[in-house]
Amino acid sequence: MTHYELIGSRGCGSAIVEAALRLAGLDSRITDIPYLKPGPGRDRLLRLNPLGQVPTLILPGGAVMTESAAMILHLNDAAPHANLAPAGGGLPRARFFELLVRLAAAIYPTYTYGDDPVRWTLEGDAARKLRETTDARRELLWRTIEEQVGEPHVLGEQLSALDLYVTVMTHWRPRRAWFDEHCPRLAAVADQAAGHPRIRDVLHRHFSGAGD
Q1: Residue 212 pLDDT > 90
Q2: Tell me, which fold does domain 4-82 have in CATH?
Q3: Where do the GST N-terminal domain residues begin and end (predicted)?
Q4: pTM score, two decimals?
Q5: CB of 107 within 8 A of CB of 136?
């Protein structure tokens, strides 16, 4: 295999990596599957990624990556001209790593446990409480990022993969109207990135017709 294959589902975090691949200009193929639905697509996904999660990225040569932040760092190395991350040796790169980890390791899990709480706890009050607490934790985390956002992009003048995360994730709970009210700088960052033609095409493919 001489190209990348991204296995994902529309509206999911695979949109972030798809946009990164588009910005990088790397030869790639997108395979959309209903990743939670039993069938051949999920069977193949489970063979590649036992956790059954998307995005899953197959590299040229067949190696598999299963974490979006790791994919971003790999694609930055593979296509440094895309400037998915700042060059080394300065404060922007340190800020990039800090926020990338917060997005991937702190905010992302609030969806893992809050989207379908009955997978992790009893139905009823326990599930409602888990949903409420993960929603509240997510809003707090977004507010901490809001305090660090530059203009017109997360890191200031340079568009980076952080903007891809923000732009995609503002389509998810607590939804765009919440960002407009409580995190207007993040909302502005999302709008700025969404104007990039390659990013706009990915957002249209994933979210066109989807309610916010």
Answers
A1: no
A2: Glutaredoxin (3.40.30)
A3: 2-83
A4: 0.95
A5: no
